[in-house]
Specification:
heterodimer; A: alpha/beta; Amidase signature (AS) enzymes; 19 helices; B: mainly alpha; 2 strands
Chain lengths: ~475, ~100
């Protein structure tokens, strides 16, 4: 009997090579768990059992032959449905992509496939990764495994819920303004948004290209490091991807003596805002725990924080309206009949796009078109890009004084399903602590903090560009302290 | 900044964005847009006359590679997803009106 809660990506290889179980048995156990639980959670949009079992057997065969295997060989992963896996659907939770089947692997998938990883299925998200609760999916509702009346967060809500409910050992998500970290926080798992450019975006269905990054959602910080280290790297198919020369050993095996030297900053602007009492308490305790390692804390200032959401959403809307223009109802659709009936192309586009996009997508496309249109461009889009420079400079200045910045991941714990759907602005405001890392391009991780209530709280660690090793290292030792207590 | 967006402006935007909107959608969108655009007005408080815009997520400089033939392009695979093809090309309804 395989105990799924005990498995991690980090102990996975040892379990296989010590013959505690085979990859096939473990993958079968995950499908069993999914069949039992996912009716109530709704993490997956599609399952791919045959392909997964076949991939698992390949790893078992390698082990039987005595070949060395990658640490993630045979590891059962969940993939957000805006990432392309060849020959599998990739809907981005949108009706306009309902029939789309990916014709190639995203670079991150290619890397994981080379490692021998197994893809259990594709997970639910807010349509085209727009939202904060996964309620904007055109296909289904995902529920928080800690309380099924509450949202899992978004947009990678399916991936976060799958990890929290032991329906996958690791998962990939995408993070445009917090879409990995906020659901990780709400579901009590670890979520890493890498530095912009650290991971190739090729094969990720673009939301806002200057903000998007692919990253891991996992059960531990160590697992996140392992998955990140496997998917990162420069890629000829994404000209913004780069390899600054990461030290693998620093990423995977952080040393306590180095972590103790890190200086941690608390940005005062992030603690002035209205915070849930549960969040405040959990974060204060987390700070005390980290201080017990002998780490020095310091108050820092990110003075333009109150302008972050406005800048973020203008840029997000503008890039979305441009990226979603390719979805014309023809190129990624198989609706032959509709195409034949159409009188002219413009009417066809308007009808298909009007029917195919959900209300949040339409809202953002219209707003993006507005902020980019002549007469408003300077007042909105150009202004937002300048404010983005100021926000980035805030981080550059703060990082002269400290190595890592600590904040709550979200001002609240998971909210009730349906409580924010009618008020888009209210939903946008819940992203206050996560959007800045995307605007500045810096890495950030959400790690479960010990909370007094049933609903999890996440602590966010933000690092310098390409210094994932700092936040993973500090995160790992903090996580060890939480486990002991 | 003009945040009192009108119904006529919304209809124009919907045309530019190639979206059909129902009456009900238009009504809700107008309310949402006014509220969201009003929120954006706070950026006006900042003097950014001396600030350069940040155009992307990276500060990498553009470089050019040698213009050489590559065998590993994915050209053609997108065609597998075309709903209707004619001689290997995408077939669509008429784009221009015929004037006979």
């Amino acid at each position: 009997m395989i105990k799924l809660p005990d498995l991690t990506l980090s102990n996975w290889k040892e379990n296989l090579t010590k013959k505690n179980f085979t990859a096939l048995e473990a993958v079968q156990a995950y499908f069993e768990e999914i069949k039992n639980k996912d009716k109530n959670i709704g993490a997956y949009l599609s399952l791919h059992e045959n392909e997964a079992l076949k991939a698992a057997e390949e790893t078992d065969l390698k082990i039987a032959k005595g070949e060395d295997i990658h640490p993630l060989a045979g590891a059962p992963l969940a993939i957000k449905d805006n990432l392309l896996v060849k020959d599998l659907p990739a809907t981005a939770s949108s009706k306009i992509l309902e029939d789309y089947v990916a014709s190639y692997d995203a670079t991150v998938i290619k890397k994981l496939r080379a490692a021998g990883s197994v893809f259990l299925g594709k997970t639910n998200l807010d349509e085209f990764a727009m939202g904060s609760s996964t309620e904007n999916s055109a296909f289904k509702l995902t529920r928080n495994p800690h309380d099924t009346k509450k949202v899992p967060g978004g947009t990678s809500g399916g991936s976060a819920a799958a990890i929290a409910a032991n329906m996958a050992l690791g998962a990939l998500g995408t993070d445009t303004g917090g879409s990995i970290r906020q659901p990780a926080s709400f579901c009590g798992v670890v979520g890493l948004k890498p530095t912009y450019g650290a991971v190739s975006r090729f094969g990720a269905i673009a939301t806002a290209s200057s903000l998007d990054q692919i990253g891991p959602l996992t059960k531990s910080v160590e697992d996140a490091a392992l998955l990140f280290n496997t998917i990162r790297g420069q890629d000829g198919y994404d000209s913004t991807s780069t390899d600054p020369g990461y030290d693998e050993n620093n990423l995977l095996n952080p040393k306590l003596e180095n972590v103790k030297k890190l200086r941690v900053g608390l940005p005062k602007e992030y603690f002035e805002d209205k915070l849930d009492e549960d969040v405040t308490k959990a974060i204060e305790k987390a700070i005390e725990k980290i201080k017990s390692l002998g780490i020095k804390f310091k108050e820092v200032s990110l003075p333009h924080t109150k302008y972050a959401l406005a800048s973020y959403y203008i840029i997000n809307f503008a890039e979305i309206s441009s990226n979603l223009a390719r979805l014309d109802g023809i190129r990624y659709s198989r609706r032959k009949d509709a195409l034949k009936k159409a009188k002219n192309l413009e009417d066809f586009y308007r009808e298909e796009r009007g029917q195919g996009f959900g209300s949040e997508s339409k809202r953002r496309i219209i707003l993006g078109t507005y902020v980019l249109s002549s007469g408003y461009y300077d007042a909105y889009y150009a202004k937002a890009q300048k404010v983005r420079t100021l926000l980035k400079n805030d981080f550059t200045n703060a990082f002269k004084e400290v190595d890592v910045i600590l904040t709550p991941t979200s001002p609240s714990t998971a909210f009730d399903i349906g409580s924010k759907t009618s008020d888009p602005l209210e939903m946008y405001l819940s992203d206050i602590f996560t959007v800045t890392a995307n605007l500045a391009g810096v890495p950030a991780i959400s790690i479960p903090a010990k909370s007094d209530t049933k609903m999890p709280v996440g602590v966010q660690l933000i690092g310098k560009h390409f210094r994932e090793a700092d936040i993973l290292g500090l995160g790992h030792y903090y996580e060890q302290l939480e486990k002991k207590s | 900044m003009a945040s009192s967006i009108t119904k006529k402006e919304l209809e124009h935007l919907a045309k530019l964005a190639r979206l059909n909107l129902s009456e009900r959608e238009e009504k809700k969108l107008l309310e949402d847009l006014r509220e969201i655009l009003a929120y954006f007005e706070k950026l006006g408080e900042l003097d950014t006359s001396e600030v350069a815009p940040m155009n992307g997520g990276t500060e990498l400089q553009n470089i050019f590679r040698e213009d050489e033939e590559r065998k590993d392009t994915l050209r053609g695979q997108g065609r597998d997803n075309f709903p209707e093809t004619k001689d290997g090309s995408l077939s669509v309804p008429e784009v221009f009106k015929r004037h006979d």
